[in-house]
Amino acid sequence: MPFDPIPLTEIEHPGQLDKHKIAHDKMWGYFPEGLGIALRRFWKKYKKPLIVTENGICTDDPKVRIQAIKDYLHVCHQVLKSDIPIQGYIFWSTWDNFEWHLGPTYRFGLVEVNPETKDRRMTEAGRFYHTITQTGTVNL
Question: Which domain covers residue 14, as residue numbers?
Answer without folding.
Answer: 1-27
